[in-house]
Each structure stands twice: as C-alpha cells, then as structure tokens.
Specification:
single chain, mainly alpha, 8 helices, 82% helix
Length: 174
C-alpha cells in the first residue's frame, strides 16, 4: 500500500511541478511532511541539504531519498524517482516536436514570461517553509548565510568551495 501512495504522490508532484527541483521543494514538503507524515520537518530539512550537495537534480534526489525514507526500502526510492520523472518524460516527448515550430509565437513567449515569476515565488515559499525557526535558524546561521551570500555576490564563488566553507564555519560555530 505504501508503494502505491509513494508512486501516486510523486507522480502528482512531477506532473504539477514547473521550473525544476527548487520549486518542487515546497510541493514535496507539503505532501510528505504535512499530508502523509512520512518525514518530520527536521528530517525533510536534512534531505533538502543532502539533495543539494549530491550530484544530480535536486528534485529527483529529494524524491529518491524521501521514497527510501518513507518505505524504508530501495523499492520506495526507485518508485519515487520513477514517478517524479515519468510525467516530464511523457510531456516532453509529446511537445518536443511542436515546440520548435511554435517557440517564436507571442502567446508561447508570454506563457514562459508568466511562469518565471511564479517559479521565483515557489522557490521563496520553499525557503520560508524550511526556515520555521525550530530547526537551525539562529544568529550564527544568519551570519553564515550573509557571509555566503556576500561571497557569491561579490566574488562569484563556485558552490562547491562555498559548501565546504559553510561546513567548516558550522563545525567552528557549533
């Protein structure tokens, strides 16, 4: 029964998600933490962090880790990963041949211009949901955030050294 719920949940997430893995975070959190209770908010925050650090798309990594945690088996991970990818795969096959033909149409361009701010809003919503004040937000965390933001903005620091520096700062601060 849990396998069917995992497949159905992640198929729905994959079907109604636009803009990549980061907007998917709030959808996944709503389903697996709030609706189904498969993970606690702290476990979900850990999965987000691990998914961002491991190679591959964040949304797919999150589906894999969440499916494994929910079913406590590799089959849960396989089902969640397959289910979250399947809608995009089907849709891309169906529209690929038509997009090149119609991509210069004003109505198609207008749709994409409307989707961009919505994706930014979904990313912001995911960040706000993760910052609930109970897990990790304190003065030291804010300092690490501000310093990381400054390094990216001013020096265009690559994410890998930034992750290592933030990890070292976490070891030093905590």
């Amino acid at each position: 029964m849990i396998y069917w719920q995992i497949f159905k949940t992640f198929f729905k997430i994959g079907l109604f998600n636009f803009g990549g893995g980061y907007p998917m975070i709030s959808f996944i959190q709503n389903e697996v933490v709030l609706k189904h209770g498969w993970l606690s908010n702290g476990e979900f925050t850990d999965i987000v962090a691990i998914s961002q650090m491991t190679p591959g798309p964040v949304g797919i990594n999150m589906a894999t880790y969440t499916g494994y945690a929910a079913a406590d088996s590799v089959w849960g991970a396989v089902l969640a990963t397959t289910a979250v990818c399947l809608p995009s795969f089907i849709i891309m096959i169906l529209i690929a041949k038509y997009f090149l033909k119609y991509q210069d149409k004003p109505s198609v361009q207008a749709v994409f211009k409307g989707l961009r701010p919505a994706m930014i809003g979904l990313i912001a919503a995911a960040a706000l949901l993760l910052c609930d004040g109970q897990n990790f937000i304190d003065g030291k965390s804010y300092l690490i955030f501000i310093f990381s933001f400054f390094l990216v903005l001013r020096y265009k620091l690559h994410p890998i050294p930034l992750i290592c520096l933030a990890g070292l700062a976490g070891i030093f601060c905590y």
